[in-house]
Amino acid sequence: MTQNTVTADWIAVDWGTSNMRAWAMSASGTVLAEATSDQGMGKLTKDGFEPALLSAVGDWINGPTTVIACGMVGSRQGWIEAPYVATPCGTLPDGLVEAPTLHTDLTVYVIPGIKQTNPADVMRGEETQISGFLARNPGWDGVICLPGTHTKWVHISADEVVSFQTFMTGELFATIANETVLRHSIAADGWDDAAFSAGLDMGISRPERLAARLFSLRANGLLNDMPGNAARAQLSGLLIGTELAAAKPYWLGQQIAVIGDSGLSKLYITALATQAAPAMQVNAQAITLAGLTTAYKRMKG
Questions:
Q1: Whether 105 and 148 share a structural domain
Q2: pLDDT per residue over 102-146, tens digit each?
Q3: How many Å separate Cα 217 from the centre of its chain?
Q4: Same domain for 17 and 65?
Q5: Contact 192, 230 (CB under 8 A)
Q6: Count of domains in the chain?
Q7: Last residue within a domain, chosen from 87, 113, 139
Q8: Claim to verify: residue 104 and residue 147 sit in the same structural domain
Q9: What percent of the chain has pLDDT over 70?
Q10: How far apart are CA 61 and CA 63, in angstroms?
């Protein structure tokens, strides 16, 4: 955990399953200090959230202080459940939910997630990033891709989330690389651009062949001495290519923005470029903070 001793006018919090990040904010939206903690939602019971928050940001509270939080803190297993808002809906759903607190100077509001009933899908945390992006790009219409453990493709029109689709690509990569027979072939790190491109082409052109192509990675290692870093890159290309093939109705002919970790976002931008679909890359942390700031300003009126 890191933090600086300041007095916050309000506090922005992005609280995920594994970690929590907080920012001390001025009334005008300037970042005064930042704190991080490994006390994510997955490690806490409901009565553990307030102590975890105070451990990270307690020194910033010197009088009545509002916290705006997004992410898994609002899940059913979080501090308090912030019910999903159904699509189509505004990119920052109405209805902030107040979490119970014991600290007399602390008021915590949680941003609700978004749901889609058919086909069934949910997002929690991404809505804040989308709102932050639109706050910086008013009037933007198109598709936002948010790569990660569960990558999301979100159709935006007239400042609303029209529809979205989630792909478990990141989780599949981690599971296949670490918990299947391919763990003997996939290196823990390293990269090969040519192998990524080859996998990408296979995945986009013949997504129905994915299961067979996966085992070929193992066979190529045994028979043709395929290096582990090349197998790692090709696995990534296969999975991202298969995802792009399935998500084509979202991105084809659209403006595209990619919000996420810089390394992973670059892979998606590279992949989209091979399909003559240019995309803009957006810093995830900055956009999350912009979305939390938008929520705070809306709450203050």
A1: no
A2: 999 999 999 999 999 999 999 999 999 999 999 999 999 999 999
A3: 29
A4: yes
A5: yes
A6: 2
A7: 113
A8: no
A9: 99
A10: 6
Nearest to 17 by CA among 147, 144, 125: 125
Give φ, ψ of 15 to 5 degrees: -115, 105
Q: Which helix (H) or strand (E) holds 210?
A: helix 210-224
Q: Which helix (H) or strand (E) holds 22?
A: strand 20-25
Q: Where are the beta strands (DSSP E) in 26-105?
A: 31-37, 65-71, 85-86, 89-90, 97-99
Q: Residue 185 is part of which domain span?
A: 125-287
Residue 295 to residue 301: CA distance in whole angstroms: 10
CA 201 – CA 274 distance, rounded (Å): 9
Give the tens place of pLDDT for each residue, 241-270: 999 999 999 999 999 999 999 999 999 999
- Beta bridge mates, 283: 260
- Report how far residue 281's alpha carbon sits from residue 194's, in angstroms, rounded to the nearest whole number: 22
Q: What angle do CA 87, 92, 95 make, to 5 degrees?
A: 85
- What pLDDT does 3 receive? 47
User: What CATH number corresponds to the domain at position 107?
Assistant: 3.30.420.300
Q: What is the pLDDT of residues 161-180, one digit of tens each?
A: 999 999 999 999 999 999 99
Q: Is 133 exposed, middle or buried (0-12, 13-18, 19+ CB in 10 A)?
A: buried
Is 134 in the same domain as 49?
no
Cβ within 8 Å of residue 253, ≥6 positions away: none
Q: Does 120 reside within a domain?
A: no
Q: Both tokens of residue 300?
A: 């203050």
Tell whether 175 and 260 lie within a shared domain: yes
> Final residue of a domain: which of 113, 143, 166?
113
Write the DSSP symbol of residue 252: T
Same domain, 102 and 149: no
Round to whole Å and give the CA distance between 252 and 244: 10
Which residue in 243, 238, 170 sits closest to 202, CA to CA? 238
